[in-house]
Amino acid sequence: MAYDAAPPPRSGPDFTAPAPPTTEEFVEVQGSSEFGDLRRTYRSFAFPLTVAFIAWYLLYVLLSNYADGFMGTKLFGNINVALVLGLGQFLTTFLIAWLYSRHAAGRLDPRAATIKTHMEGGPTTLGAPRTPGDARTEADA
Questions:
Q1: Within 13 A of 13's CA, how many CA atoms are on the CB side?
Q2: Cα separation of 57 and 31, whole Å?
Q3: Which of 31, 55, 77, 136 has a CA that sits 20 to 30 A from residue 45's CA?
Q4: Which phi and psi angles does 48 have, rounded to 5°?
Q5: Is 137's pLDDT higher than 50?
Q6: H/E element holding 119?
Q7: What does pLDDT average to over the chain?
Q8: What is the rounded CA–CA span in Å between residue 18 and residue 112?
Q9: To the nearest whole percent, how much of the chain has pLDDT over 90?
Q10: How many Å apart are CA 56 and CA 106, to the nearest integer?
């Protein structure tokens, strides 16, 4: 990917490193409704999917241990139920990773970027840009 502008300097007289956020700023952002919304969005996706996958995995393990006849049932040729369900474990793992990637890119990353921009001192919808009286001034940002 080509860019028209040169990257900002990382050292030298034109480079001003932003001051790191203070502990109070982290606590403030952690208590913000935007951060709570980010956490809620993550949890509403991750927790149910995790529970569903663990249940699916435990079902496979229990069937493998206690339902020999069922798991040994041949579906076609030398392919039995155990092999199909075992391969299904791999498929669901990749499916969940793909779904999470899409979810994170569409719903989590933009919200996290807004919070990050706010923490770095830029203007965001999370709050107004820092004023000169704040711990970090506009010159620091």
A1: 0
A2: 36
A3: 31
A4: -60, -40
A5: no
A6: helix 109-119
A7: 83
A8: 19
A9: 58
A10: 27
Q: What does the block give as tokens for 16? A: 């001003």
- CA–CA separation, 135 and 21 (whole Å): 9
pLDDT on residue 124: 56
Q: In the block, which residue shows the tokens 């996706």?
A: 45
Q: CA-CA distances (angstroms) from residue 87 to 38, 128, 133?
A: 34, 52, 60
DSSP state letter for 76: E
Question: Tell me, what amino acid is at 25?
Answer: E
Q: Is the dihedral of CA 37, 38, 39, 45 positive or negative?
A: positive
| pLDDT tens digits along 50-108 | 999 999 999 999 999 999 999 999 999 999 999 999 999 999 999 999 999 999 999 99
* Tally of residues, the chain: 141
By the 8 A CB rule, do 90 and 16 touch?
no
Q: Is residue 8 within 8 Å of 74, Cβ to Cβ?
A: no
What's the DSSP call for residue 31?
A: T
| Residue 23 one-letter amino acid | T
Cβ–Cβ < 8 Å for 89, 60: yes
Q: How far apart are CA 138 and CA 12, in angstroms?
A: 20
